[in-house]
Amino acid sequence: MPVEDRIKSVIELELRPGDERLDQESLAVMPFSQRLKRPPSVSKFPGALVLRRFAANSTICVQGDAGNTAFYILTTEDLLALRQFQQTRLQQGATAATTRAKDKRPTKLASLNAEIDACHQRLEQLTTGSAGEPNPARRAATARLAVATRTARGGRGVVARILSRISGTRAASRRYIPIDAPTDIDYDKREAPLHEGDLFGEMSCMTFAPRSATITTDRDCYMLEFNRHIFDAMQRDAGYQQWMGDVYRRRALSTHLSQSDLFGELRAEHRARLIEHASLATLEPGAVICDEGDPSDSVYIIRNGLVQVVKQAHLALRPADISDWQRFCRAIVDAGTESQEEIPPPSPATQPEKPSPPKSPTAEKVSSAGKAVAD
Asked: Of 182 and 360, which is predicted with more confidence?
């Protein structure tokens, strides 16, 4: 198989009945793309992004299965903008050929009109959700976890017990399990809702980690599925980072703080202040979060992924590491001098011969004239 075909087979996602490949213009009209400073280029990686239609009770992914893609659940506004754009494009491209029996454009146009009408009706039915919470009417799927739960909770940490005695409060009884989605799974129910506009599967997309939960649809819906080529471009986008940070603060951070041994005993208003000043950071594998001995100015909560902690492995020199600065600087200079001496000078045989400068036309004339006089 040629190299180009092998690369293409890795990038391209398989098309199933009802799926669509979107071009750059179609992707750009959706509010999803307008949240980004620069939407990812589907022309650079053709086949790396697919619009999939799922019927109710469809299984998107299964917990423990291998995965390398992420999903975005289209909002009603996304679908409406896309279908209206496709409708306009189809109408502008209509010619006399559309009247032929084999032409599929009239059927396609009728299907687009029906979906546009359905989107308008759905938008009229949707009401605004409570502050910080997604609208229940926009629920599209459910994440489920296949694990056994314990009826009794294990002991809390020392910090939590001390804060509990000081404040006279008790930790919340509800517990949650973080998954690869903008929401957490209820510990007792072992499930969590996913709504329009949610993005899930990031860790599998970035690190090829097994799926952290089983996702099934609650109703007919559309999702964008894309691989890491698209997701990497999204992660570098400032608009995407701000969007995900806002979602994390509204949906997941409050839960994380309430379950933390360090912050779980704080009052709600105090946790709200922490949430207000929190930021979400996405780090590449191998990135250094902090170096041992650095002044501490932040507290980190791991949302997803794995973090390695290493002791006595400094990545940079500190003033305390050097007792004699003069000797240290002299050693650096000597090391540089020795490295220069190790490079042998080029031998005369290998030295390039200096080219003689070209004679100017004037010099040629003077030389010829002198020769003529001498003759």
From this structure: 182
